[in-house]
Design brief:
Elements (H helix, E strand, L loop, with lengths): L28 H4 L5 E4 L7 E15 L5 E9 L5 E10 L18 E14 L4 E7 L27 E4 L7 E3 L7
Antiparallel strand pairs: 1-6, 2-5, 2-7, 2-8, 3-4, 3-6
């Protein structure tokens, strides 16, 4: 992840002027073409599936930085490939255990991160796919992390960070979806 070239916000629940950052649902395919955005996509669904409630991602990952951000986005992909954003969230790594007692990272060490992706109410239709995007930026919705570990807002320099996402029996990264039974 290079904070000098952040992943740009493309729709969503934004705070900014719609002239600067568009609000609402947008096709995420332009974002997903970037090499610094990982996409995990289900097979096409055999039946409708209702997901309603809070979304959470458990991510096992390492970086060569002293601090970094991890972002996650839930996306509904239609049969045509149109990929609409539903909700997204971010976690600044130094706050992985506490918002009041930040702790910098040991470069290269794998940590477990729990990312609050927000709340949604969506029926993924038969033939659609569930997608999770993982990256380290969603700018300007969320401020860029310079990856230095310095106090927030004090950096004049930014550094690229090598990021590694782990998913195995030892590091069971996953998305937790509140599926409504009988949907």
């Amino acid at each position: 992840y290079d904070p000098r070239f952040p992943v740009e916000t493309n729709g969503g629940n934004n705070c900014c002027s719609p002239h600067i950052v568009p609000w609402g649902p947008y096709d995420q395919r332009p974002v997903e073409m970037r090499s610094d955005v990982l996409c995990y996509t289900s097979a096409p669904l055999e039946n409708d599936l209702e997901v309603t409630g809070p979304i959470e991602v458990l991510l096992h990952a390492a970086t060569d930085g002293r601090d970094t951000d991890w972002t996650a986005k839930l996306v509904d992909v239609g049969p045509s490939g149109y990929a609409v954003n539903l909700c997204d969230g971010i976690l600044r790594a130094r706050y992985r255990d506490s918002l009041t007692d930040p702790s910098l990272l040991e470069p290269g060490r794998v940590y477990a991160y729990t990312i609050d992706v927000g709340v949604t109410g969506n029926v993924f239709r038969k033939g659609h796919c569930i997608r999770l995007e993982v990256s380290s930026s969603n700018f300007p919705r969320f401020d860029r992390n310079p990856n230095t570990g310095n106090p927030i807002g004090m950096d004049a320099q930014m550094r690229a960070a090598g990021q590694t996402v782990h998913h195995s029996r030892a590091y069971p990264s996953c998305i937790r979806l509140p599926v409504i039974p009988g949907s």
